């Protein structure tokens, strides 16, 4: 996937810098000097440079002097010595200033001091240096960074450092965000504004001259500390484990029944690349505008961010791409297979799409006058407007798929199709609606909800008075909401189980409630009365019995009844499964037709094969059927989730809290006659910023700057760990915010 390399997105150029560059930070234990050096490293990685950073601690505890180092160069750095002649020196505690700290600096060195004293206090002392002074402690205290007793100034002082070097604040901000310190950036901004700078009296280029100040003791020349050569002691031999980079499965990807690469398309959006995001999504999802509206979004239910501050609005982002990306697909007809698809609902459309994308010749046979299945005949337009559906279907049609509408096929047709094609995929959805065996069920005013929904999509339907809807699935909710729009005075849903057992999408239940639909749980109509036209529903109380195979409590109808006056009843009790068009002698096994024990080149997909009952399942199943056709095998199982990244593997402390961007809602003041879309989706794709990119490297450089041995190098396509010097401490993997690397036993790693 196409992550942007920091050098491609550099906000500042490195041209003006004298490289290699060595920075030394002095502070006291607890002040954050080591993090300060890491932040400096992150700052330079934003400019596409190679860095190395590490701390130098004694055995003392909090308050004892600590040094930390950062090296910067245009090429990978091999010198892992401490820094003895810094080009930039940062002192976090003015009490430390003395010969020891100033050791090794020469004229022209950049010197940044944290002090409450102004520049005046240093007049005559550091005139050969480019001096910056800032009261980072006061700023950090004001901004509440650290505690009242221990103020942490590392993130603050770097604002002053950026100003001293003439770096734009935006580069600094990006570095803070990459290390999960975005919340400290305002303090850095203050320091940027408040630092006072004195230029050297005589501008002298940094040189290798030792500092006159402080009369440092000459450094023993046991090794050459400045030469970029690796130490001879290969410390890598000490380790028994080594960090390994590699993608792990994001839970959103694993949960999407369509098989979408969620983390891929969301991260591409995050990088501002809408076309790439669309290309990734369209690999598996032919109906992004549809699923971006009606999918129950199991991806969001599984999103790791829900354990932090709310799931990423993945469905909203999918819809945003579907509605906004302009992506025309290449039409090719260069592959060999002729495939017939029976049924043009989501499963059939998905199967046709996958085959046509690969250049095969595909014909869809659809019983109705137009493609779409339930999307066209069932789901109301206030949830799925026609233009959104047409947009997705037109994209599939543009691949050159042949379409034969008004073609309801039977068993004989299926046999013929099989003879005339290389393969057939049957995607005819569920069977007819389930009826209610109750006295008076044939009274006028009682009708199947599916018929009512189909009629309401084609013409103006009037349904005045009090309406009772029987059922608890999506059809029941859609019937209830549509009835309100067709003029019903009241709508009551009678459901035989409890609210939590309703199979309808939870958000749709809430929507219905908000619009004024009433619910009667544990009720089932056992009779209807009226003279020719229904006027009363007799509702029996239903008790929860022992759990059935699905774990839900079995409904037990009691003799206790009550009567409810009504003018119309809509039945939404589900649809029968079963394949009416299966020819005699054929059976279905593992999604494939068999005759006399022999597998036939006929596959089944969608609700007719699985009964899973969602659009996204149908899309995923249609794709798998197409792949099974291409490989001539049974339907593949869902992918295993062995490498799933759990919430506990995300370093939440790296990220700033940010509430989810919800979909915009249009709540009409009057529902009657109003079929306008209610959910207007996201205003922009900014929500993508919230994605952690679980298990997928974003090239944030956190591992690189966290390595205490400086043995991680950036490469063209990722990172490389220098195994000759990596001691296997695991800091990098522990610091990775998103579990995109792991420590492995050395003997397990293939060289
Ligand atoms: C009212 C309602 C609301 C729903 N809301 C949602 C929702 O919000 N979210 C969600 O994910 N799911 C929802 N669902 C479920 C979802 O729509 C289905 O699971 C999905 O459409 C199944 O797709 P499919 O392609 O298998 O079948 P279908 O969509 O049923 O398509 C089957 C197609 O095959 C055609 N066909 C049938 N027999 C033949 C034949 N003999 N010859 C030729 N063609 C034939 C049909 O005309 C139809 O076009 C809803 C379902 C209903 C009924
Ligand atoms: S199709 Fe549904 S589950 Fe898959 S990514 Fe889209 S919203 Fe999530
Ligand atoms: S945070 Fe992003 S990658 Fe992680 S589960 Fe959520 S959407 Fe997927
Ligand atoms: S820390 Fe950042 S750069 Fe390193 S593996 Fe993790 S995501 Fe990638």
Explain what the structure shows.
The chain is built from 23 helices and 28 strands. By secondary structure, it is of the alpha/beta class. Among the domains are: 21-198, Pyruvate-ferredoxin Oxidoreductase, domain 3, CATH 3.40.920; 235-246 and 697-748, Alpha-Beta Plaits; 446-571, FAD/NAD(P)-binding domain (3-Layer(bba) Sandwich), CATH 3.50.50. The strands form seven sheets. It has a seven-stranded mixed sheet. The chain has a seven-stranded mixed sheet with strand order 11-10-9-12-23-22-21, sandwiched between helices. A five-stranded parallel sheet has the order 13-20-14-15-16. Helix 4 (154-165) crosses helix 6. The longest helix is centred in the C-terminal third of the chain and has 17 residues, at 615-631. Bound molecules: flavin-adenine dinucleotide and iron/sulfur cluster (3 copies).
Question: How would you name the CATH homologous superfamily of the domain at 21-198?
Answer: Pyruvate-ferredoxin oxidoreductase, PFOR, domain III
SS summary, helix count: 23
Form type = elongated
| Level-1 CATH class name of the domain at 21-198 | Alpha Beta
- The amount of helix comes to 25-40%
């Amino acid at each position: 996937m196409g992550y942007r390399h920091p050098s491609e997105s550099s906000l500042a150029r490195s041209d003006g810098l004298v490289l290699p560059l060595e920075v030394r930070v002095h502070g006291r234990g607890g002040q954050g000097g080591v993090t300060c050096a890491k932040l400096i490293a992150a700052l330079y990685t934003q400019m596409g440079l190679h860095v190395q950073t590490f701390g130098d601690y004694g055995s003392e505890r909090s308050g004892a002097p600590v040094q930390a180092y950062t090296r910067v160069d245009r090429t990978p750095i091999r010198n892992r010595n401490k820094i003895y002649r810094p080009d930039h020196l940062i002192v976090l505690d003015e009490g430390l200033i003395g010969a020891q700290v100033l050791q090794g600096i020469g004229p022209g060195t950049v010197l940044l001091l944290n002090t409450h004293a102004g520049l005046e206090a240093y007049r005559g002392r550091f005139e050969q240096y480019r001096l910056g002074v800032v009261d980072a402690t006061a700023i950090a205290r004001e901004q509440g960074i650290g505690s009242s007793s221990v103020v942490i100034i590392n993130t603050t002082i770097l604002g002053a450092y950026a100003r001293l070097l003439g770096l734009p604040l935006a580069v600094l901000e990006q570095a803070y965000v990459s290390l999960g310190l975005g919340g400290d950036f305002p303090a850095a901004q203050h320091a940027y504004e408040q630092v006072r700078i004195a230029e050297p009296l005589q501008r002298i280029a940094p040189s290798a001259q030792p500092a006159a100040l402080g009369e440092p003791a000459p450094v023993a020349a046991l090794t050459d500390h400045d030469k970029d050569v690796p130490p001879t002691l290969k410390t890598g031999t000490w380790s028994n484990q080594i960090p390994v980079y590699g993608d792990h499965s994001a839970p959103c990807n694993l949960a999407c029944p369509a098989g979408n690469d969620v983390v891929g398309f969301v991260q591409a959006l995050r990088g501002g690349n809408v076309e790439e995001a669309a290309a990734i999504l369209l690999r598996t999802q032919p109906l992004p505008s549809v699923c971006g509206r009606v999918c129950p979004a199991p991806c969001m239910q599984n999103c790791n961010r829900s354990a932090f501050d709310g799931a990423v609005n993945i469905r909203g982002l999918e819809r945003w791409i579907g509605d906004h990306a302009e992506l025309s697909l290449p039409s090719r007809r260069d592959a060999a297979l002729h495939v017939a698809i029976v049924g043009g609902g989501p499963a059939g459309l998905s199967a046709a799409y996958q085959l046509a994308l690969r250049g095969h010749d595909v014909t869809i046979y659809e019983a109705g006058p137009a493609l779409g299945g339930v999307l066209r005949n069932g789901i109301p337009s206030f949830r799925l407007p026609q233009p959104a559906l047409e947009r997705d279907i037109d994209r599939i049609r543009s691949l050159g798929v042949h379409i034969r509408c008004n073609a309801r096929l039977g068993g004989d047709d299926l046999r013929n199709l099989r003879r005339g094609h290389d393969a057939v995929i049957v995607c005819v959805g569920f069977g007819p609606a389930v009826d209610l065996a109750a006295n008076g069920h044939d009274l006028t005013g009682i009708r199947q909800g599916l018929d009512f929904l189909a009629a309401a999509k084609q013409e103006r339907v009037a349904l005045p008075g009090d309406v009772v809807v029987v059922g608890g699935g999506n059809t029941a909710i859609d019937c209830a909401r549509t009835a309100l729009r067709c003029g019903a005075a009241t709508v009551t849903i009678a459901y035989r189980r409890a609210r939590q057992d309703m199979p309808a999408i939870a958000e749709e239940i809430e929507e219905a409630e908000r619009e004024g639909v009433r619910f009667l749980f544990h009720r089932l109509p056992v009779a209807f009365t009226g003279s020719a036209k229904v006027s009363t529903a007799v509702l029996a109380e239903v008790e929860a019995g022992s759990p059935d195979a699905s774990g839900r409590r079995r409904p037990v109808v009691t003799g206790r009844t009550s009567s409810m006056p009504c003018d119309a009843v809509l039945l939404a009790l589900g649809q029968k499964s079963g394949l009416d068009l299966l020819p005699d002698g054929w059976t279905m096994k593992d999604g494939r037709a068999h005759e006399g024990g022999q597998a036939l080149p006929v596959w089944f997909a969608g609700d007719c094969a699985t009964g899973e009952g969602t659009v996204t399942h149908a899309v995923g199943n249609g794709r798998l059927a197409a792949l099974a056709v291409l490989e001539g095998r049974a339907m593949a199982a869902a992918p295993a989730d062995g490498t799933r990244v759990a919430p506990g593997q995300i370093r939440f402390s790296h990220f700033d809290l940010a509430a989810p961007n919800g979909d915009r809602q249009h709540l009409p003041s009057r529902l009657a006659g109003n079929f306008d879309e209610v959910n207007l989706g996201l205003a922009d794709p900014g929500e993508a910023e919230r994605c952690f990119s679980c298990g997928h490297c974003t090239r944030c450089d956190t591992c690189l700057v966290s390595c205490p041995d400086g043995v991680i190098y950036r490469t063209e396509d990722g990172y490389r760990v220098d195994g000759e010097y990596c001691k296997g401490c695991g800091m990098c993997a522990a610091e990775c915010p998103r579990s995109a690397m792991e420590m492995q036993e050395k003997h397990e790693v293939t060289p």
